């Protein structure tokens, strides 16, 4: 299957040099951006009812830009002055960079993981004397409390914002060759907006272990998984997938006419084999289950 159109479940990049735009130009793709979920702030009045004292904590664990924005928003609404001694543990460099919007960056109080929360835990374990606050959404990631408890660190999970499905009714009759998801909330939104959706030949890409699990739990076929050692970004994983398809098409075109009674069918067969190979590498094993049915494209 030749990929021509892609829908990414995030806002459009503001940087003209975004890898998505470069990918679209390189492979002649049409890439649309549409957030599948939206974030609603938890009012300070509701947060007070949880009886969580922010200043009882000495370190903040930040897993996303939303977590950063809503932590400092809540402090402002509650008129809390965050002490300069507060430490920040950020899941990635991009999140750490974003924190500078609110604080003066100092190495002694900003700690950075490589990419996943599991990577960040290696850093957190070295600071077990801290009391951690984990601001997040009402859709809590199960791996966070599990890993924190396993490491025997003191922590508090706190809901600073809620995640709700966006209205995607205008996409009902729009078809895409690939759907790209970044959170379990994206999958929930897909199900809510299109309860009769069927995946069929649509390629599904997922970023992060919790999103991968959500795709599989929903009964969909996972075609692209990120991050990978050779492709730490979603755009990198998509490009690996596209390259495999191009190689298969080129091989089919070079096949002698006598050996291909149906050139189109042969090319499709080779492309399909390449897709399976890519999926196997991405997921760690090739799936033996039949393609699951889900929402209409």
Summed up:
The chain is an alpha/beta fold and 297 residues long. It has two domains: 5-35 and 167-283, Rossmann fold (3-Layer(aba) Sandwich), CATH 3.40.50; 40-164, 3-Layer(aba) Sandwich (Rossmann fold), CATH 3.40.50.
**Rounded to an integer, what's the Rg over CA atoms?**
22 Å
Order of helices and strands: EHEEHEHEHEHEHEEHEHEHH
Please identify the structural class as seen in this structure. alpha/beta
**Helical segment count:** 10
Instruction: Indicate the mean pLDDT.
Output: 85
User: What is the level-2 CATH architecture name of the largest domain?
Assistant: 3-Layer(aba) Sandwich
Largest sheet: 6 strands, mixed
- The residue fraction in helices comes out at 25-40%
Might you state the CATH topology name of the largest domain? Rossmann fold
How far is the N terminus from the C terminus? 15 Å
| Sequence of strands across the biggest β-sheet | 3-8-7-4-5-6
| Strand residue percentage | 15-25%
Number of strands: 11
Tally the structural domains. Answer: 2
| General shape | globular
- CATH top level of the largest domain is Alpha Beta
Architecture overview:
By secondary structure, the protein is of the alpha/beta class. The chain has 2 domains: 148 residues, 3-Layer(aba) Sandwich (Rossmann fold), CATH 3.40.50; 125 residues, Rossmann fold, CATH 3.40.50.10090. The protein is 37% helix and 19% strand. The strands form 2 sheets. The protein has a 6-stranded mixed beta sheet with strand order 3-8-7-4-5-6. Helix 4 links the parallel strand 5 and strand 6. Helix 7 runs parallel beside helix 8 and helix 9 packs antiparallel against helix 10. It starts with a strand and ends in a 14-residue tail after the last helix. About 9% of the residues have low confidence.
């Amino acid at each position: 299957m030749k990929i021509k159109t892609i829908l990414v479940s995030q806002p459009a990049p503001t940087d003209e040099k975004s890898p998505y735009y470069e990918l679209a130009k390189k492979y002649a793709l049409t890439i649309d951006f549409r957030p599948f979920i939206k974030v609603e702030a938890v009012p300070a009045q509701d947060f007070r009812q949880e009886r969580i004292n922010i200043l009882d904590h000495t370190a903040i664990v930040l897993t996303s830009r939303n977590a950063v924005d809503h932590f400092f928003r809540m402090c402002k609404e509650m008129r809390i002055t965050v002490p300069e001694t507060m430490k920040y543990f950020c899941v990635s460099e991009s999140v750490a960079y974003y924190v500078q919007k609110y604080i003066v960056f100092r190495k002694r109080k900003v700690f950075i993981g490589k990419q996943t929360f599991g990577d960040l835990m290696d850093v957190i374990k070295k600071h077990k004397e801290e009391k951690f606050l984990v601001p997040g959404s009402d859709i809590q990631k199960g791996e966070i409390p599990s890993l924190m408890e396993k490491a025997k660190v003191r922590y508090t999970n706190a809901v600073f914002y809620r995640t709700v499905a966006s209205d995607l009714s205008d996409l009902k009759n729009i078809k895409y060759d690939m759907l790209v998801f970044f959170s379990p909330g994206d999958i929930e939104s897909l199900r809510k907006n299109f309860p009769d959706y069927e995946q069929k030949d649509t390629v599904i890409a997922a970023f992060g272990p919790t999103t991968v699990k959500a795709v599989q739990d929903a009964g969909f076929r996972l075609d692209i998984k990120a991050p990978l050692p050779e492709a730490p970004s979603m755009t990198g994983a998509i490009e690996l997938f596209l390259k495999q398809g191009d190689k298969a098409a080129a091989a089919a075109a070079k096949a002698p006419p006598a050996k291909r009674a149906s050139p189109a069918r042969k090319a499709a067969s080779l492309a399909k084999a390449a897709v399976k190979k890519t999926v196997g590498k991405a997921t760690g094993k090739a799936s033996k289950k039949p393609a699951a049915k889900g929402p209409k494209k």
